[in-house]
Amino acid sequence: MNQRLSxxxxxxxxxxxxxAVLGVVAVASAEPSRxxxxxxxxxxxxxxxxxxxxxxxxxYLRRSKQLFGVTLLPVDHPPNSAIYDAFLKQVLRxxxxxxxxxxxxxxxxxxxxxxxxxEHSQDVIDFVARTVGAIAYVGLDVLEAARNPGVKVVPxxxxxxxxxxxxxxxxLTYTKK
Length: 177
Prior knowledge:
Layout: H1 2-29, E1 34-42, H2 53-60, E2 66-67, E3 70-71, E4 73-76, H3 82-92, H4 96-108, E5 116-117, H5 121-129, E6 134-139, H6 140-146, E7 151-153, E8 156-158, E9 161-163, E10 173-175
Parallel strand pairs: 4-5, 4-6
Antiparallel strand pairs: 1-6, 1-7, 1-10, 2-3, 8-9
């Protein structure tokens, strides 16, 4: 009986170890989800058919006041969001510190003010839908879930045309937490 109990404990121990190892392997191999970042404008802003990364950078650093003849109102996410960090790195090409220094310099010299920050993606979408000239970025998954007919996705201008967030070669993404 003792020998049987010992074998059972050994077998259970092996099963537990195997499960633990497999669990660690599964966790280690699980990759965070990469989500395309969609650039959106109001559906009523008809003159916008594509936008370049350089135009986005100029808009968000408030170097450009207009785009396609319309006064720009860039909308930003709060600095504590993954999408903000990705946009900062991929479009503005600045660190948080460098961007903070830029806005401090602007404030001290009477320059431009930073873009409006709106915390929730759905509120960003709603604001853009009702504001011609507003331009923003949101996760494509959030936009698809919102199904707001008041906004349109603007393809990113590339060397030989434009590419939409759902197409191969689209470069703006963030890691969903």
